[in-house]
Design goal:
The chain is of the alpha/beta class. It has one domain: Glutaredoxin. The protein contains 5 helices and 7 strands. The strands form 2 sheets. The chain has a 5-stranded mixed sheet. A two-stranded antiparallel ribbon has the order 1-2. 28% of the residues are buried.
Length: 169
């Protein structure tokens, strides 16, 4: 009996802990948390400055193998495809890394999409506590339309569909 009570209590505490973790994550339907961050090119990127646009925010690391796989896809299938649209903006944010490390990484991979660095993870923590790559599609209304955690081809294709759908609104 005591064993069952202990297991039940452990299970309930685990659920409470998991729900608290999820409560800290920005989710679909939430208003996207505001942030301003410095880009590698020396410009400032403010989410508020892009109200009324579809915005893709990607968090990555230069040592994350899934991030390394995803970034060229973001470059080719999102940035290069939509960069001339007035109603679109993209920003890739290097979580927990210094500017010099990120600059070298971007240069080696010949990426041209806008990239920012978040060495203290101030921006990342507004959206999540852990797990990258993490990508958010924010609609023209400022609400998060999709959250992609990790990287798979199938989920990436769905992300492209969400972006296209948001353009039509």
């Amino acid at each position: 009996m005591k064993r069952n009570q202990l297991l039940l209590m452990t299970g309930l505490l685990s659920l409470l802990w998991i729900s608290n973790l999820n409560a800290q994550n920005a989710r679909s339907g939430d208003i996207a948390p505001h942030f301003t961050i410095n880009t590698i090119s020396g410009k400032s990127f403010s989410l508020d400055a892009h109200k009324g646009k579809v915005v893709l925010v990607n968090f990555f690391s230069t040592v994350c193998r899934w991030c390394i796989k995803e970034l060229p896809k973001l470059e080719k299938d999102v940035f290069l495809k939509y960069r001339k649209r007035n109603d679109f903006q993209i920003i890739a944010v290097a979580r927990g890394q210094q500017k010099s490390t990120v600059e070298k990484f971007i240069r080696q991979r010949q990426l041209t999409l806008p990239v920012a660095y978040d060495p203290q993870q101030h921006v990342f923590r507004k959206y999540a506590e852990k797990m990258i790559p993490r990508t958010y599609v924010i609609g023209k209304d400022g609400k998060i339309k999709q959250v992609l955690v990790g990287y798979t081809e199938a989920e990436f294709k769905q992300l492209l569909k969400v972006i296209e759908y948001e353009f039509k609104k």
